[in-house]
Amino acid sequence: MSTDDPVTIESLIQAYPEFIPMYQDVYELCRNIERVMGSFSKELRELDRNTVQLMIDEMQDEINEQRKQLNQKNTQLNQKDAIIQTKDRRIEELEKLLAEKL
Asked: Which of helix, strand or coil describes residue 102?
Protein backbone atom coordinates (compact mmCIF):
# COMPACT_ATOMS: atom_id res chain seq x y z
CA MET A 1 0.00 0.00 0.00
CA SER A 2 2.93 2.38 0.52
CA THR A 3 4.72 1.76 -2.76
CA ASP A 4 4.18 3.58 -6.01
CA ASP A 5 6.44 1.28 -8.06
CA PRO A 6 4.28 -0.06 -10.93
CA VAL A 7 6.19 -3.37 -11.07
CA THR A 8 5.59 -4.03 -7.37
CA ILE A 9 1.94 -3.07 -7.66
CA GLU A 10 1.48 -5.31 -10.71
CA SER A 11 3.07 -8.28 -8.93
CA LEU A 12 0.83 -7.70 -5.90
CA ILE A 13 -2.26 -7.56 -8.10
CA GLN A 14 -1.26 -10.77 -9.85
CA ALA A 15 -0.54 -12.54 -6.56
CA TYR A 16 -3.56 -11.10 -4.74
CA PRO A 17 -6.42 -10.17 -7.12
CA GLU A 18 -8.57 -9.13 -4.13
CA PHE A 19 -6.06 -6.27 -3.71
CA ILE A 20 -7.39 -4.52 -6.86
CA PRO A 21 -10.45 -2.80 -5.30
CA MET A 22 -8.40 -1.73 -2.27
CA TYR A 23 -5.65 -0.30 -4.48
CA GLN A 24 -8.21 1.52 -6.62
CA ASP A 25 -9.74 3.14 -3.53
CA VAL A 26 -6.36 4.28 -2.25
CA TYR A 27 -5.32 5.50 -5.70
CA GLU A 28 -8.52 7.55 -6.10
CA LEU A 29 -8.17 8.90 -2.61
CA CYS A 30 -4.61 10.07 -3.34
CA ARG A 31 -5.72 11.70 -6.56
CA ASN A 32 -8.32 13.72 -4.70
CA ILE A 33 -6.19 15.67 -2.22
CA GLU A 34 -9.15 17.80 -1.11
CA ARG A 35 -10.94 14.68 0.09
CA VAL A 36 -7.83 13.52 1.93
CA MET A 37 -7.45 16.91 3.61
CA GLY A 38 -11.15 16.92 4.46
CA SER A 39 -10.73 13.57 6.19
CA PHE A 40 -7.77 14.88 8.16
CA SER A 41 -9.66 18.07 9.03
CA LYS A 42 -12.61 16.06 10.31
CA GLU A 43 -10.34 13.85 12.39
CA LEU A 44 -8.47 16.87 13.76
CA ARG A 45 -11.75 18.54 14.72
CA GLU A 46 -12.77 15.40 16.59
CA LEU A 47 -9.38 15.22 18.26
CA ASP A 48 -9.68 18.89 19.29
CA ARG A 49 -13.19 18.29 20.62
CA ASN A 50 -11.96 15.30 22.64
CA THR A 51 -9.00 17.27 23.96
CA VAL A 52 -11.24 20.12 25.06
CA GLN A 53 -13.61 17.68 26.76
CA LEU A 54 -10.70 16.02 28.56
CA MET A 55 -9.46 19.42 29.75
CA ILE A 56 -12.95 20.33 30.97
CA ASP A 57 -13.23 17.01 32.83
CA GLU A 58 -9.82 17.50 34.45
CA MET A 59 -10.69 21.06 35.46
CA GLN A 60 -14.02 19.90 36.91
CA ASP A 61 -12.21 17.21 38.93
CA GLU A 62 -9.82 19.87 40.23
CA ILE A 63 -12.71 22.18 41.11
CA ASN A 64 -14.48 19.35 42.94
CA GLU A 65 -11.33 18.55 44.90
CA GLN A 66 -10.81 22.21 45.81
CA ARG A 67 -14.47 22.49 46.87
CA LYS A 68 -14.04 19.43 49.08
CA GLN A 69 -10.91 20.92 50.67
CA LEU A 70 -12.67 24.26 51.16
CA ASN A 71 -15.58 22.54 52.90
CA GLN A 72 -13.14 20.72 55.19
CA LYS A 73 -11.40 24.02 56.03
CA ASN A 74 -14.76 25.69 56.72
CA THR A 75 -15.70 22.85 59.05
CA GLN A 76 -12.39 23.24 60.89
CA LEU A 77 -12.89 27.02 61.14
CA ASN A 78 -16.40 26.55 62.51
CA GLN A 79 -15.09 24.13 65.12
CA LYS A 80 -12.36 26.59 66.12
CA ASP A 81 -14.90 29.42 66.29
CA ALA A 82 -17.01 27.32 68.65
CA ILE A 83 -13.97 26.64 70.85
CA ILE A 84 -13.09 30.36 70.89
CA GLN A 85 -16.66 31.30 71.86
CA THR A 86 -16.57 28.77 74.68
CA LYS A 87 -13.27 30.17 75.92
CA ASP A 88 -14.58 33.75 75.61
CA ARG A 89 -17.59 32.85 77.77
CA ARG A 90 -15.32 31.17 80.31
CA ILE A 91 -13.07 34.27 80.43
CA GLU A 92 -16.12 36.48 81.02
CA GLU A 93 -17.26 34.24 83.87
CA LEU A 94 -13.81 34.30 85.45
CA GLU A 95 -13.61 38.09 85.08
CA LYS A 96 -16.99 38.43 86.86
CA LEU A 97 -15.83 36.15 89.67
CA LEU A 98 -12.63 38.14 89.99
CA ALA A 99 -14.53 41.45 90.01
CA GLU A 100 -16.85 40.13 92.75
CA LYS A 101 -13.92 39.11 94.95
CA LEU A 102 -12.20 42.45 94.62
From this structure: coil
